[in-house]
Amino acid sequence: MSAPQPLAEIIRNGMVESAHYGHLVILDSAGTNFFSRGDSQAPIFPRSSIKPIQARAMVKLGLDIEPKLLALVIASHSGSDEHIAGVRELLAEFNLDENALQCALDLPLGENERKLWGAQSPTRIAMNCSGKHAGMLATCVINGWDTSHYLEMNHPLQIAIKREIEESSRSKSVNDTFDGCGAPLFAVPLLALAYAIRSLIDSGDSGDSASRAIVHAMSTHPEMVAGSGRLSTRWMRAVPGLIMKEGAEGVHIAGQSGKGVIAFKVIDGSMRAHDVITRSALAQIGVVAEFPSVSVFGGLPPKLEIRASF
User: What domains can be seen in the chain, in order of their start residue?
Assistant: First the structure.
């Protein structure tokens, strides 16, 4: 296995002060792995970057909801009033309420949303994965499956989701565990994650309708997939047809039909460099955006920058 390599560097007064190491893979429009850094075969937990594939499994199992709510099923949402209202709407559509959710208790993910939450206690519906869990519960109702243990590895829903991940990624899970929200999580190589995302954007007119539904939901409702000011939302608003999803512990994916796919994992788990890594990687497949980067340093001191290392 190849060692991680620098993906981004912090430059202070012309000198490298810090670096973020990781693995990166870029697929071109034909699905060829034409650029990689670090080890594209490194097994990773894709965390929330795999949500589009999880959601596709649900759509294939009969989850037929409006695109705005489907975007929430794919989301790591910020916890705004709109997000929480959408989760409640999705649950109510299937005669459920938030008491059915079994995701972790949490505060809103978004910085502003957390401030507005104030001194309220953590709740399941405020948790950034509550949309995914609502979608899982709805899929169980559609198929007549027990909702009381929908997060167990041997539940038919989770078996179907694992199968969808393995088939689309062309790889078997090398480590079955649970994500921070409580849902099953499956480790695959970084390259396999890129293949899975390509299977979504490569659906085309003759491809499967479930993939087209996922891409449409993400690209037309980016504010539901993430939230105001978030990197994925800004990119998907700026580039029509682009899909993008972050995952915890430094994972990130993006792809656009006719262009290609990027996937990377920052080993230290930080998201500080995601903006510059994403910009540099997408530029290699001809995807650019006309909006400024957001400083990750607060007020930007003189002669301080963060830049990609490839």
Answer: 5-62+152-308 (3.40.710)
